[in-house]
Amino acid sequence: MMSTVLVTGGTGVLGSALVKQLEGRADVRTLSRRASDNPDVVRGDLETGEGLEAAVDGVDVIAHCATAADYRRPRRDVEQTRRLLVAAGNRRPHVAYISIVGIDRIPFRYYKAKLECEELIQHSGLPWTIFRTTQFHDLALLFLQILTKPPVAIVPRGFQGQPVDVNEVAIRMAELVLGEPAGRAADMGGPRIENAADMVRTYLELTKKGRRVVQVPLPGKVAGGFRAGHHMITSDGIHGQRTFSQYLKERVRPDGTVDAPYKLRR
């Protein structure tokens, strides 16, 4: 008998990829704030809690992929997670949560909120799995597009990244969702460490943009955490296969144009 899985954030970058991976392997429901004629979509609002109890009824696993991505109000994620856990109540579904590498070592407000979400899940009394990854290729592309809008591309000096392909993350996430609760699962990151300035130059070359790249030092503990590489996986983590360069070359058109992968919410 197939498990019933509720995916929050099921229309997002990871959520939509996860739904595809689970199709045919589980009875998949996608949480939505809006009513839908699609029988695989269930209504429930993480912002207000409305409809969440009905949405989680009969669910074996909750794949919690939703994020407000609100860097000015990061605690929205905490409150949404709290409402979801309260709604789950005594039903005791397995909660599988996607998180970010380095949130316990870099004092970024959004990371602190994600860490608090992890702690809520760990102390909820529900069976749980927490899966941390590095930044997706899509987010790296969005940042490159932002950095290269001005005539001069300003890049933080000493910054590196280890972007990972979202479809590879979805494959691993599906395994965790369909498996037994794993607690803290092994972290996952991209196949190689990328220098931020080199990523910008590659993007400029592929998109045929003439920009000067200037590297500037960023002060503070947050910047220091990124320079130290706390947002990247260690040798014990799982490495994806698809590089950022491969991803980027597939997205850029022959004329140099490229669509934004998604927009940060305001």
Question: Would you write up a description of this structure?
Answer:
This protein is α/β, with parallel strands linked by helices and 266 residues long. Helix content is 35%, strand content 19%. The protein contains nine helices and 13 strands. Strands 3-2-1-4-5-6-9 form a seven-stranded parallel sheet, with helices on both faces. Strands 7-12 form a two-stranded parallel ribbon. Strand 1, helix 1 and strand 2 form a beta-alpha-beta unit. Helix 1 crosses helix 6 and helix 3 packs parallel to helix 4. The longest helix is centred in the N-terminal third of the chain and has 14 residues. It is globular and about 55 Å long. The model has no long low-confidence stretch (mean pLDDT 94).
DSSP E strands, number: 13
The percentage of residues in β strands lies in 15-25%
Residues in helix, %:
25-40%
Radius of gyration (CA) equals 19 Å
Strand order across the largest sheet: 3-2-1-4-5-6-9
Give the helix/strand class.
alpha/beta
Order of helices and strands: EHEEHEHEHEHEEHEEEHEHEH
Largest sheet: 7 strands, parallel
Uncertain runs are none
Tally of separate helices: 9
Whole-number mean pLDDT: 94
